[in-house]
Amino acid sequence: MPARIRTAVDQRFPAELARLRRERGMSLRDLARRVHYSKSYLHDLEVGRIRPTCDVAGHLDDTLQANGTLTAMVAETPAVTTPDDDQRIAYAIAQPTRLDAATVRLLADVLAAQRRLDDAIAAPVMLPSAVPQWRTMQDLAARARGPHAPELQAIAAEWTQFVGWLHAEARNDAEAVRVLIEAADEADAVDSGPLAAQVENFRGYLERQRGNPRGIVRHFLAAYHTPGSSALQRVGDAVQAAHGYALLGDRAAAERLLGEASDLTEAAESESPPAAAYWLTPTFSRMGLGLAYLALGDKATAADNLRAGLQGLPDDQRDAEWTTEYRQALTVAAA
After folding, report:
1. Same domain flag for 218 and 331
2. Domain containing residue 31
3. What is the spatial distance between Cα 69 and Cα 54, in angstroms, rounded to a whole number?
4. Cβ pair 193, 227 in contact under 8 A
5. pLDDT digits (tens, 9 = 90+) for 211-256
6. What is the CATH number of the domain that holds 66?
7. Which segments does the entry list as coiled coil (predicted)?
8. Which of 26, 95, 232, 279 is buried deepest, with most CB atoms within 10 A?
9. CA–CA separation, 161 vs 50, rounded Å?
10. What is the Cα gyration radius of the chain?
């Protein structure tokens, strides 16, 4: 049976299509003649009544000379569930008191697949489908009863964290903060140190995108000192807090944290990453080290660490949206 394909569309596509058309001085009728689509079809695309396929987005992008803007807003992704899976999930939603272990495992697998899609698809394209899934999970977790409910609630807490991350990555800053605050409460409710630490890590990432060194220090230090977090998480959090201190000009504090991170490395190398931070490896934190050393003015060491960290990424992560800042930093360090 061929894989089912789902089309994911950035919610900004309709407005961007209309903006580009007007910027090119075209009416709907003009564009319809050029692309050989009906005027009504184009109107429905611009008001969001229908969704474009990848082919349609590409054709419009070429015609409007959008340099890939429209193409990047549409992606085809394989469905992560089968029809039988969908029926099982629908039954759990309708009968939450009869939740079973197989459904909980299935929902964990769905979340894991969504998180890995984030390495290949831009966050704004993922959000329109991720948010409804999250809300469904929250509702199910609130109504679930029985021995499997606690495990489902932990999955729902991780889903909240994932949606907060997507908003941070998409630079929906206010919504990211709101959702991540909610994620912190849920992580505490399910008594998960790794989840709680990862929430603070994502808050630190957002502050780094905002260019706020004190925010970087505040949230990465909170992650570093969160009870129950893993050694791999703590290494990365210490390194990124050191980056914040370096940006503030506090070299002593930065070097102290880099030393603490080095001391933790042996323990980190012997453990597997928590599911909430599956991407962590002993070499992953070298990208954060690169940022810290670059801020400390040591370009050669920064370049070595950034290069090693980027080269150590799995193939499916190397072009992920979140790697952009590290690739840009490597360009600066290597100059």
Report:
1. yes
2. 5-76
3. 12
4. yes
5. 999 999 999 999 999 999 999 999 999 999 999 999 999 999 999 9
6. 1.10.260.40
7. none
8. 232
9. 30
10. 22
